Amino acid sequence: MWRERAGLRQAELGTAIGYSEEQVSSVERGRRAPKKQFLEAADAVLDAGGMISGLMKDVEVARYPKKVRDLAKLEAEAVEICAYDNSVVNGLLQTPEYLRAVFGSRCPAFSEDDLEQRVAARLARQAIIDGTQTTPAFSFVHDEAALRRHVGGRMVLRRQLERLLDIGHMRNVEIQVLPLDREDNAGLGGPFHLLRLKEGTTVGYNEVQRVSRLISESREVQILELRYGVIRSQALPPRESLAFIEKVLGET
What we know:
It is built from twelve helices and six strands. It is of the alpha/beta class.
């Protein structure tokens, strides 16, 4: 350990970098994830040559909730990602202001640290959509209600709709809208994801009332695949959907 090699006690290191002995102990025992300032200060005091400060990326990933890390790993292995959402805009498409408003509306409320971790984790997941790659392929279907709900207020929603229009023109992304005036809606059971992985298998994922579930049983996955196909057929085609989003933007 770098501290022991330097001949410093926890209290001495804490004094040198501006943290308490308890904070140093919590970091060393894995009870608390260190912040960037902690790692940079410890690296300098212990003359670690960047070995400690370089751990920041790993620390950031470790701070994310486990279910988020698991989902991000699956998304990284996917060749196609499909999602249906009927309440809010899909997380992979959310602007920072919009997703912060989504997490901020949870009841009971997240702690400030938990909120920041979830915001950072979702933004990190969004890196998979960068507009320069052809894989994975993305298919998103949103219920019209998700596009009209003023999450975060009018201006936050406007910027969110503008982002949907930008992403909707990417080569590997299709965004569809299921209008409220449709008599048939196979998605009334709630939102879900389908991820087709590189090795050929498909898994489902959903999260309801803060309870997330990975679906791998073949029969259940087949049901979700069938349901998603029906939802897509009920929704507007991609080009008409973008025109619909432009219409909603003009009315917002």
